[in-house]
Amino acid sequence: MAKCDEGYNCEVCGRPVEKLTESDLYLRYVIGMLDPEVLHTTPERHVRCNPVLAQFIVHPSFEPLTAAGDFAKSNLDPAFVAEREALATRGYERLLELVQVNLPIVDYPLPEVRAKHAEGRGE
Fold it and tell me: Cα(6)–Cα(58) distance, rounded to whole angstroms?
């Protein structure tokens, strides 16, 4: 069976990542943490299986998650935390929007991320 027919399993827990809104891969792509050139070669994970990023999503439909260790947001600079919460939450909201529309994958990222990609291509 081809990989695309199998779906994508989380590299952390091994279970399938069944929804776009559960995808750490696409969240990172949408917010500009993942270059589009490596999207197809980067392993998938559930958002919740990446607590270092998931802890920054502050949204009513996302159950809060607390990361442990040095990268717990309680150990980070408050200005950085606020900035990262704004970005991760906007990215999560974008994933919620994307499940409602039919867009090409190049249009998934947030507007400022798309603009940055366009600059890189010389557009």
Answer: 32
Would you say 32 and 110 are in contact if contact means Cβ atoms under 8 Å apart? yes
Spatial distance between the Cα atoms of 31 and 112, rounded to a whole number of angstroms: 9
Segment 41-54, tens digit of pLDDT: 999 999 999 999 99
Parse the chain into domains and list their residue ranges: 3-112
Sign of CA dihedral 39, 45, 48, 50: negative
Q: Please list the alpha-helical segments (H only) found in 15-77.
A: 24-30, 51-54
Residue 56 contacts residue 84 (beta carbons within 8 Å): yes
The strand pairing partners of 22, in sequence order, are: none
Q: Indicate the DSSP class of residue 74.
A: G
